Amino acid sequence: MKKYIVLGLIVVGLFGCAKSSTGRNQIMLMSESDLSKMGVASFEEMKKEVPISSHKETNAFVQCVADAITKNVPKSAHSGEWEVVVFDSAQVNAFALPGGKIGVYTGILNVTENQDQLAAIMGHEVGHVIEHHSNERLSANKVSQVGMAAAAIALGASDIDNKGQWMAGLGLGLQYGIIMPYGRSHESEADIVGQDLMARSGFKPEASIHLWQNMAKLSKDAPPEFMSTHPSNETRITQLTQHLKVSEPMFNGANRPNCIKPKHIPEPPKPKAKAEQK
Length: 278
Hints:
Elements: H1 2-15, E1 18-19, E2 25-26, H2 32-49, H3 56-70, E3 83-87, E4 94-97, E5 101-105, H4 115-130, H5 133-156, H6 163-200, H7 207-218, H8 233-252
Parallel strand pairs: 3-5
Antiparallel strand pairs: 1-2, 4-5
């Protein structure tokens, strides 16, 4: 078994030569052009499946923040125009995809109190694109699949009892020991990169801390951090507070946008009840 583990480490070492802007080693096996095509295709599918907001004030507010943020995104992340869509959904979420796509659910606008907090959300999501996290996650899944296959072959050729339990244990080890911490490192990195990005774009970086304080009130039943792909709200607040000494000087030299949040965000349409079958 040891030689297969060593082989897996060699593979990771060979493809871990890339570094993120924060200095973290990255494994990237996917083509960025392919990821952009996947992002565009996924976004087009979403636009067909999820209602799109037609509320002018809400769309203007989100577009205003997005314009300020994307102006400062490195061309290595996306060199063209960014498409921004506001989805009519109660989900407290937003996302950015390779290929220059940003989606904001109206549900998140009830948590973000002003332009600065929305910029914190948008900066975070665009931060994932800047740091090529989609590439890393897909690459990590490929590497873990190869590792599991190699372990299955090794166990099959051995005299170890309870091979099924060994494989199940190895799967859990990968999940909690590699995949989830990998996801948490991505989230923490996107928080920091996003805070810098919002500050350079003229939004108050301390708003990212207030945002996660608001989010903490909504997620009181969150799982323990070691069982989650996201850091705890307390961890995020601590990291963002510590990073203010870096991001605040960026904000002090930036032009401040004037994006006005509507006093009322329309409620998303309720799902239609399924017709009863006769």
